[in-house]
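Re: Re: ligand-bound prediction request (bumping)

Still looking for help on this. To restate: I need the protein modeled with 1,3-dihydroxyacetonephosphate bound, output as structure tokens. Inputs repeated here so nobody has to scroll up.
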Amino acid sequence: MARTPLIIGNWKMNVDHVAAVSLVQKLAWTLKDAEHDPAAVQVVVLPPFTDLRSVQTLVEGDRLDLAYGAQDVSDAPPGARTGDIAAAFLTRLGVTHVTVGHSERRLHHGEDDALVAAKAVAAVAAGITPVVCVGEPLEVRRAGRHVEHVLAQVDGSLAGLGAEQVAAAVVAYEPVWAIGTGEVATPEDAQEVCAAIRQRVGQVHGEAVADAVRVLYGGSVKSSSAASLMAQPDVDGALVGGASLDAAEFAAIVGAARP
Ligand code: 13P
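Reply:
Sorry for the wait, this slipped through. Here it is.
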């Protein structure tokens, strides 16, 4: 089964709502100039929450062929959760994707697999595609336990989703040691773990689900490294941090994903 490549730009806590409008415009123009085909490669940007309304207005007003999402979501319905954002609010803003369990949330907000799983369930219930992030820290990689570590995260973080929901979900393998360090994983390292993730999904939900689920690599992806990573059979795209803040660089990564 042919999976459509997916490139996601995670802006993290960068770019305020004013700057977001120019970055999205610039990205849309750059992609158009590069004759980007949205049917061939799906592109999603993840601005901070405070930018989403501005991005929605721009994308809808100018009919841009660009999807956008959020970087986190509450596991709870609307109510007494100060500072949290309900999935239903994101749906209202036209959000299509949300990352859950990013390593920066696991680290700075103490998120564990059970919470990540609950967030994925909340996203799906609101019609939003969860991008479930997993990845090992350096000491685990050095000890050679990266595959088992990641598979335990996959088991725990996808625990609340049924087969059809996993088939429509995205899993992003982001080794913590590669995030923001400039130290990108080798294509072989990315392939090893992405293949193991797909195999585990197959063991739990069957081959058809394993064939359908998209598995991305993330961690210091640049236009220079994107093509060789995405040439790997089990790497269906990239979750891009720093390089997604530069429209030309991000568009070049999108171009490298063209099948
Ligand atoms: P960098 O591309 O900046 O390493 O970030 C990766 C990431 O964490 C994307 O979610």
